[in-house]
Amino acid sequence: MTAVEQRFREFKMPDVGEGLTEAEILKWFVAPGDTVTDGQVVCEVETAKAAVELPIPFDGVVHELRFEEGATVDVGTPIISVDTDPGAGEAAPQAAPAAEAPAAEKPAVAAEPEEKEGRQANLVGYGAAPASTKRRPRKPQRSAPAPSAGAPAPQEPAPAPARPEAAPAPAPAPSPELNGSGRTARPLAKPPVRKLAKDLGIDLETVTPSGADGIITREDVHAAAEAVQAARETPVATPSAAGTAASARERRVPVKGVRKATAQAMVHSAFTAPHVTEFVTVDVTRTMKLVADLKQDPELSGLRVNPLLLVAKALLVAIRRNPDINATWDEDNQEIVYKDYVNLGIAAATPRGLIVPNIKDAGAKTLPELASALGELVSTAREGKTTPAAMSGGTITITNVGVFGIDAGTPIINPGESAILAFGAVKLQPWVHKGEVKPRQVTTLALSFDHRLVDGELGSKVLADVAAVLERPKRLITWA
Fold it and tell me: What is the C-alpha to C-alpha distance for residues 127 and 172, in angstroms, rounded to an integer?
């Protein structure tokens, strides 16, 4: 057993974040029989924080995959078995026939590979292979005494047991459901296509593939969705059919991964930190003009310059003037932890849910450096490649609800922080400017803060300072 354990090594689901307990296998990059090397990426998993590629820490040949794509696995559970000494497996069958020449040994040697294939196949959907290999040796044993009986009579019943034995032969019938590599009985489709099917409520088992090697394409999923929609619009004749049609208009999506973590974090924050939200409406015409000018500045060429950049800079100036806002509440030790650095979080909506990566030490960055970091943060989030490290350690957050055309809101504080600033849509509105009503660019800011460590005075000062900088952006220089 020790030799076997040393030969077949298991790679366990690691904790790729901070205390995560589970992860979902999004995609396998290897199959049984593939050769892998130390450091090679074998699969992609989604944790409660991000999608991460997992490299295997040793060499060998993939023996079996313990879970299919889409399975949620606890941290510490083996997910793949690797044969680290495949040559040993080949030597054993060769030695057996050399030592014992009798023909009776040959079926035993032949049965071992078939039995191993049965085990692998059983992992991914084959179930009848082991039974068929065991029934064949029994046929000659039953037919051997048959010659002692009369020729016609025993031969008539002999085929009869053979037919039940042959009945499992139709086991290959499920083969159309298998993919080309024989790894899994799941329909063949790329991860984006699977997500599309999930979003549209389409079961891939019901979709007819049109791609090469039986792969389901986006067009196949859209065609299936159109067929379902057409079925929903068809007049219903019977009460039973009406019930079926009603259920067809519903879809259920398991809550897991980033969305599950976000839900738990928001519930915890909402019911542990006493939230207070304040609002201010401000004329940001000068800020919008400055944004237009900065876009033409050679020093910022190729960088992401937009109103959010100046809102971020304004908040950093306000924090410098009111440092006590940059803190966290330590419930276990009953302490307030004040931080002399600012890891500025930016809430980002991604296909996997809401995430809040942060710009490390944002308060020490120049405007070009902040623009570069902000652009990289947003593009990485959209690609779904934000790492858990990029989402840990945040101290204060900005959520830009204005990109959705929303004027204001009451954002929930990111756990472990003391405040979050919501930046609303910038709109042209009538505004009293220098004693006259004129059309001006106006926005609304909302600041939610934890009232255990941020009182009304501090929260109001921070929000007023952000508004003052956006109203007259020259304060970025005079207040710096």
Answer: 10
Backbone φ and ψ of 3, nearest 5°: -65, -40
Catalytic residue among 63, 222, 268, 451: 451
Strand, coil or helix: 411: coil
Separation of CA 333 from chain center: 34
Number of residues that make up the chain: 480
Structure tokens at 368: 């070009």
Is 451 considered catalytic here?
yes
Give pTM, 2 decimals.
0.56
Q: Provide the pLDDT confidence category of residue 214 given band limits of 50, 70 and 90.
A: confident
Nearest to 59 by CA among 25, 91, 119, 11: 11
- Contact yes or no for 391/355 (Cβ under 8 A): yes
**Interatomic CA distance for residues 124 and 370, integer angstroms:** 49
CA distances from 366 to 281, 398, 423, 434, 477 (A): 27, 18, 21, 33, 12
Residues 6+ apart with CB under 8 A from 22: 13, 47, 48, 72, 73, 74, 75
Q: How many CB atoms lie within 10 A of CB 260?
A: 16
